[in-house]
Fold each of these.
Amino acid sequence: MKKIISAVLASVMIMASFSACTVKEDNNVVSSSGENEIYLNYLRDNLTQMPRDVIIGDEAEASSYGIDMTDISDDGFVTRATEGKLLIFGKTDEGLDRAVRDFVKYGNADNYSKTYGEGYRVKRLTIAGNDISEYAIVYENDGYNGYMHLAATELSDYIEKACGAALPTYSAGDYARAKNPPERRIDLVVDYPTLNNEAFRIEVGADGNMTVFGGRTRGCIYGVYDLLEENVGWRFFDDVLNRENPHDKGIMEYLYEAEHIDLTAEINRTEEPLFDSRRMDDLYEGDTDNFVLKEKISENWYSGHGLNQVDYTGTSFESKKANQPCLSDEEILERIDEHTLAYVERALASGQEIGLDFFGLSLGQYDGTEGYCYCIDCMDVIAEERSPSGLYVRTANRAAQLLKDNGYGDLHVNILAYLDTNIPPTKTKPLDNVRVAFCFYINDSHTFTCNAHTLDGKDCGNGASSNKRQAERFLGWEAICAPGALDVWYYPFHAGASLAAAPMVQNLYHDIKFLSEHNVNAIINTVVPGTGESQFQTLIEYLLNEICWELPESYEEYLGLVEEWFYLTYGDGGAPLYEYWLEYERLGKQVDCYAVFYASTLPTVYINAYDMTSRLDYFCGLFEEARRLADTSEQVRRIEILEAGMLYLGVCQAYDYWYVNGTAEEKARLIELYERLFYLVHEHHQPVYCSIFLTSARYAPEKLNLDESPIMWYTRTSGDEDQGLLG
C-alpha cells in the first residue's frame, strides 16, 4: 500500500513551496484554483485568525508536493500546517469540505497534521487468528429467491470494502469441483426446521472455520448482515433526504474504524425474530440496495381488508348501499366459502408453498367507519356477542374450519379488530388457525389513539383519545386468541405535521415490549415517510426495524441505539442534537393526550407553551453547536432541516409570550428566530403540512408577515398548497 508522505517531510516541503512558488494575495492567502474559493471563504468566516499562507488543492495538486493520495477515500483529505502555513488537499469536494471543517474545529496553523480516509477502515480482519484472505465463502445452494447466492456475494463485497480482502464465493458443488480452492471456509448452510424460516446461528469452530446457519428463506442473508453489523462494524440506515421520491429507499452505509477485528467463538450466537412477520408499511412496495433485507423487514403475512376481494355476484349484497356485507346471510357466507378455497387453490397453483411463502388469507372488513349491516339477524348476533366483532369471528371460524376440512389446517384466516370490531366477542372464541389483527388506531367512538403516551395507557388520562380503553380491549383479545395468533397494526407516524415532529420516539421501546409480552407475533408498522427528516420518521423506522427483530434488554440500551443514530446521521454534530432530543421527548410526556392522525390536532399540543418558550434559547444553542461540530456540509443541511422543525414549534409557542406581550428585547429575539425559521423553510423547501398519502403539501408564504403567527401556515387559509407534489 502506498503511504502518505511523512509530516516532517511535508513541513519542509510546505516551507519550500510557499517561499518558491506561491503568488500571494493581499491577505497572503492563495488557493490552487478559483474553484476552491468556497473552502477559503469557510476558513475566513470561521477561524479567529487565518494562517499566513494557505494552499487548497485536489489529488493532482497534492502530488506536486510529493503527497500520494492513491489510497485516500473519496471523502478523505490530507492537512499539514506548520509555522502559519497550511496545506489542505482533498480527493474530491467532499474531502475538501471535511478538511476545512476539521481544521476549524481542531487545527492550528503552527503545528497540525491530519490524514483522513487513508487505506481501509478495518486494518486487519481475522477469524480465530487466521487472516480473512485465507477464506472462501461456500453456500449450500441458491436457496429461496436466490438469497443464498446473494448472502455469499454481499458478505464478500462488504468484507472487501472493509479490509481489502476479496473472498471468492462458491456454491457447494463448484467448491467440490474446484482445483486448489482455499481450505479455510465460511459456510452458509440452511438448517430447517431447527431455525424455521428466518432465524440464524453463527458458529466459529475449533478448526477456525465459520458457519452461518439459517432458516430456509432469509435466515442466512439475515445472519450475514447481522455479522457485518455486529462484528465487523457496518451500519445500514435510511437516506431519506436523498430519495428520488418518498417511496424510494436509499441506503446510507457507515463502517467504524478498527485496527484489528478477530472473529472468535465469542461471537457464536443464535437469533430469532421477536415477531415472525414485520412489515414497514411504506417500504413493502419496493426495495433499493437490499434495504429491506438489511433491515430484516419481512412481511410474511398481511392483515388487510380481505372481504373486499370476495365476488358477491348474485347475492343480495349487490343491491345494498352499505359497504360491509351481511355476515348473517347464508348466500353471502357461501360466496366467502368459495373465495376461501379458490384463493388457496390459486396460490398453490402459482407455486407458493404453505409455511414457506404462503400462510393464509385475510377476511378483514372493508375499510371505513360506516356501512355495517344492521339487519335483525346481524343485530341478534351482535347482542349475543356484545360486539359487532362476533360476526367477523364467526365468519372467520367458518372459513378456518373449511380450510381444516380440506387439508389446509396450517393456513390461517386473518380478521381485523378495527373501528367497531375492536371490542372482543364475549361468547365465540377464534379457532386456533384464526389470527386477529388489533389496530391501535380508531376506537368504536371514532376517536384516535393517543400518540403522546404509550399503548398500555398507563400515562393517559380518561379523555376520548386515552389509550386505557384501547389497551383493555387489546388484552381482551389476547385472552381469547390462540397462542401467537394476535397481530397488531401500529401507527407511530406524524400524519399532517411534516415539519414539527411529535415527541413519540421514546414510546417505541415501551410499546414493542408491551406487545411482545402479550401474545403478538406479527406487527404492521405504519410509518408514513413524509417529506423531511425533521419528522424523525427515519429514526422511528430505523428503531422499529431494530427492535422488532430483537428488543434491547434495557431501556438504556435502547437509548444507545438512538444516540448512535444521531452520530450516524449528523456526525460530531449528533451529540448536541441527542441532548436536544432527550429534553424534547421528556417535555412531550408532560402534556395531555392527543392524536396526530390526519392532522387532527395542531403541533402546538406536543409541548406546553411555557416549557417550549423557556427552553427555546437553550435549544437554539444546541443547534448552533451541532452546526459547528458537523463534519460535512451535507450534515449541516440535515441539521438545518431538523432545526426548522424545532424553530417552527418554538416560534409558534413563544409568539404570544415574546412578540405580542413581551419586552422590546423579547420581541426582537422572536423576530430574529422567526426570520431564521422563514429562511430555513424556504432554503430547504420544507412543507409545514403534508397529507397522509403524500398528495398535497402546504408551505410558508412567499413573504414574511411578522404580525401573523407561523401556526397559520399550517391552516388551509394561509400559505401555499401544492397538489400532487409528492405523489
Note: The radius of gyration is 30 Å.
Amino acid sequence: MSKSSLLIVLSMLFLASVVLAKIDIHQDSWGWCTNIECNKFCEDQKYNFGTCEWYLLIRSKCLCTNIDN
C-alpha cells in the first residue's frame, strides 16, 4: 500500500470517527460528552456527580459517581 493510499484511508477513518462521535446515544450515555450535560444527567439519575471519560481521543462516555460520607 502506498503512502498516499494509507493517508487517504486514515483520513476517512478519522472523519468517520468524528461523525460517529457527534451522534448522541442516550441509552448507555455514549456520545459527545460535556461535563455540564454529564453532571446534569447523573444528578437526574440520583448520583452525586458525573464526569466525561474519553476514548480514542474523540468518543467519550459520561461516568456517574456516588460518594458516600
Note: The chain has a mean pLDDT of 76.
Amino acid sequence: MSSMSRFFRSARLLFLVAVVCAWVHSPPAAADESPAAMAKTAAAAAEAGRLVINYWDKWTGPEKDAMQAVVDDFNASQTRIYVDFLSVSEVVQKTLLATAGGVPPDLSGVWAANVVELADKDALMPLDDLARGSNVDRARYLPVYWNMGVYKNRLWGVPSTPATTGIYWNKGLFKAAGLDPDRPPATMAELDEYAQKLTKVENGRITQIGFIQTEPAWWPFFWV
C-alpha cells in the first residue's frame, strides 16, 4: 500500500488492582523462579510482618520478565508490602475458577475487554474506596485509559501496560474517494462513513473495501 500514514488509537490492557507500580528499564537478574522458591520467599515475607499480595498476570516471555522487574523494584522499594507475582496462562478462566472456589488472587492482570465480564459475574471488588485518598486518581490517567476500568459508575481496574495502536490509510485512495488524505477518521462514526466512501461494488461484487476488521487484523498492533 503506497503513501501510508497512521494515527494512534487507544490502549487495550488493564491491571485489576489498586496498587500500580511504574515501568522499569531492564529485566531482573536471573533467579530461582520455581513455584516452590516463590512460595518460600512469600512465606518469609509474611513471617517478617509484610503484607503479601498475590498477583496473577497473563504475561509470559519478555513481557513477563518486564513485569517481574516492576514487581521486584516495588518489593525492594519498601518493607511493608510484598507482591508475590505469578505468570498464569488463561488467567481470566483461572481467576473465575479460583474466585468460585473461594481462593482468588488479590490482583489479576487481564485484558480490558474482560473487566465488564468479571464485574458482572461479581468476580471483582470495586476499587473506589481503596483508591480514594491514594495516588490512584483519575487526574493521573488519560480518560481513555481510566474509563476502561469504569463500569456502572464504579472503578474496577486501572491500566498497567497500556499499548498504543495505529491505523494505516492509503492517501491515494482517500483522494480518489474525495476524502482529505491528511485527515484520518477520528471517531467510530467517521470510520464507518469513510469505509463506505472507500468501498466499491461492481456488478454485485466488492472490488474495493474501505475497511475490514478481520484480515490483516494484526496490522494496527505495532508497538510505537
Note: Residues 1-32 have pLDDT under 50 and may be disordered.
